[in-house]
Amino acid sequence: MAAEALRTLIVDDEPLAIERLQILCAQVPEISLVGTASDGEAALRLIEALAPDLVLLDIAMPGVDGMAVAAALDGKGQAPAIIFCTAFDSFAVAAFDVAAVGYLLKPVTPDKLSRAVARVIERRHQIADAPAGESFIEEFWVPHRSEVVRIGADDVDRITAERDYMRLHVGQRSFLLHQTIGELERRLDPDRFIRVHRSTIVRRAAIAKLNHDGLGAWHAYLDDGTELKIGRSYRDAVREAFRPTKKGPSASY
Q1: Structural domain of residue 20, as residue ranges?
Q2: pLDDT tens-digit profile of 82-103?
Q3: Average pLDDT over residues 37-49
Q4: 246 and 175 co-located in one domain
């Protein structure tokens, strides 16, 4: 058994799905299986009794479904990490809201399970090493074509609002996330992200320079050449954040 083996509980209402996950878990050295549950109510009882490190959780179950289980655990001290294992990609946004560490579409493969478990272990290290305080978003899970993909927060260059959705710009690609800009801003680390407009949030490290046109209008230029208008109500905060005495992009004052 690996030194960092995660005590793991499988939750699924289909016996064959449980059996398949048991076989997969046996192939991942970082997993130590402690039990299984076939419904949400039993899962919550076993989580309380066994205090697992990880729950491999189905979503579509009768009665108390997987989302309800995750919501009941969200915010509790010493709550297990959750990796959703589901046949549906339509719950990815809700999974983001309950801070799931992984979202795997069935049939789950050994490689994808191993990568998700590695993220759980990495996050445990980050939490152990981090100072006490508020926890900010480190990754996004977003639907993309026929799968759900993980995007690290530090890979996002900018975020733009499109009605009830946010578009995450990652290099030359972009992904839609169902979230309002106000909700997202509160969950992003202000030392790494800054709002420059009512519809735009930018990763600070992606800003190459600030400039004004001499008539009062300010713009931010990103490393990739993108030009963004800085909203009037955000201008002072942005200029203060990037004053020449601070480490950051150059500014033409």
Answers
A1: 6-129
A2: 999 998 877 765 666 666 788 8
A3: 95
A4: yes
Helix (H) or strand (E) holding 235: helix 235-241
Q: Average of pLDDT values for 208-234?
A: 91
Indicate the number of domains in the chain.
2
**125 and 12 in one domain?**
yes
Q: What is the per-residue pLDDT for 250? A: 60
57 near 116, Cβ under 8 Å?
no
Question: Are 43 and 17 within 8 A, CB to CB?
Answer: no
Residue 237 lies inside a defined structural domain of this protein = yes
Six-digit token pair at 96?
């983001």
Q: What is the mean pLDDT of residues 225-253?
A: 80
The closest alpha carbon to 57, from 79, 35, 32, 85, belongs to 85
Q: Where are the beta strands (DSSP E) in the chain?
A: 6-11, 31-37, 54-57, 81-86, 102-105, 139-144, 147-152, 158-162, 165-170, 173-178, 193-197, 200-203, 207-212, 218-222, 227-230, 250-251
- Is the predicted pLDDT of residue 192 greater than 60, yes or no? yes
User: Is the pLDDT assigned to residue 1 strictly greater than 50?
Assistant: no
Strands (E), 45-101: 54-57, 81-86
Tokens of 180: 């309002």
